[in-house]
Amino acid sequence: MKVNDFLKSKAFKSVMVLMCIALVAGGLLAILSDVLYVSDQERIERAINTIYGEEISFEELELSDSDKTNEYGSIDNVYLLEDENYLIKATGLHGYKDGTVTVWIVAEYDKAEFLGLKKVVVASYEKQTLMSSFTNDFYKTFYDSKEDVIGGKYFAVTESENNIQNITGGASKSSNAINNAVDSGLYYVRNVIASDGGEI
């Protein structure tokens, strides 16, 4: 086949159309990637705004390797807020199908004294198919009864009280992961913040 015949063929025209589509799509993706990019700073600002309903300045605290995990789950991020409260992102283990639940926890402080949890908000989850069963009222349970939360109903304050009680919910295994996420955050409060000078 001659070059001129090839250039006029349907095969060549199809290749050119596909190349044009690929170039246009690639260009659009590059532009949208820049326009829609959300930095880590913006993500935490959005999370704080969702939880507090307003902007508030914060400082991200460095986590040592030993502080990142505990028997209940993991600590993903910790922020010291301008109102002296701590915002903790914690993940709880052992949910439905061994999945996880990640929550944002606001640990409330007054003059370095831990008062309890100010708010608990779900951030994400894996394999937890019945999460819609857990309404906002479910998460309020953690911070409406501060003495129960601090004193052992959801978190073991003494070494001898090492049993976690699940709050009732639509799916007990998902409830377990949520409880463990909150317990993981409280473990951090008790063993890291308190040891750094904060009281509990």
Structural summary, described in words:
The protein is α+β, with helices and mostly antiparallel strands. The protein has two domains: 3-36; 58-196, no CATH class. The chain is 43% helix and 22% strand. A hairpin with a 2-residue loop joins strand 4 (100-110) and strand 5 (113-126).
Residue share in helix: 40-55%
What is the strand arrangement across the widest sheet?
A: 1-2-3-4-5
For the sheet with most strands, the description reads:
5 strands, antiparallel
> Can you count the beta strands?
5
Task: Give me the Rg, rounded.
Answer: 24 Å
Unreliable runs: 156-170
What distance lies between the first and last C-alpha atoms, to the nearest angstrom? Answer: 84 Å
Q: What order do the helices and strands follow?
A: HHHEHEEEEHHH
Globular, elongated, flat, extended or rod-shaped: what is the shape?
elongated
Separate helix tally: 7
Strand content: 15-25%
By oligomeric state, this entry counts as single chain
Top keywords for this entry?
7 helices, alpha+beta, 200 residues, 22% strand, 2 domains
What's the quick description here?
This protein has helices at 3-7, 10-36, 40-52, 65-68, 136-144, 146-151, 172-193; strands at 58-60, 73-81, 86-92, 100-110, 113-126. It has 200 residues and is α+β, with helices and mostly antiparallel strands. The chain starts with a helix and ends in a 7-residue tail after the last helix.
